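Take one protein record:
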Amino acid sequence: VQDCFVCAAGTANNETGQATCPDCRTGYYSSVGALRCTECPAGRFANATATPDTCAECPVGRYAARSATAE
C-alpha cells in the first residue's frame, strides 16, 4: 500500500483505516511500525525527553520501583 505510512517510533496503531498513529502514553514506548506501545519495566522510564523507541535507565541516585514510569 504505497500511500500508507509506517507509524513512527513512540506511536502505535492496531486498527485499519486510521489517519494517524497515536503517541504512546507516558511510561510506554514503541519501535517503528508498532501495533502497540510497550510498558517500560521497573528501573526504566519513558517521557517526553526519552528516546521514543526505548525506555531509559534510571540515573544514579534514582529508581523506578513500578513499571510504566514517567521519571
Observations:
- The two ends are 38 Å apart (CA to CA).
- The CA atoms of residues 44 and 57 lie 4 Å apart.
- The chain has a mean pLDDT of 88.
- The first strand starts at residue 28 and ends at 29.
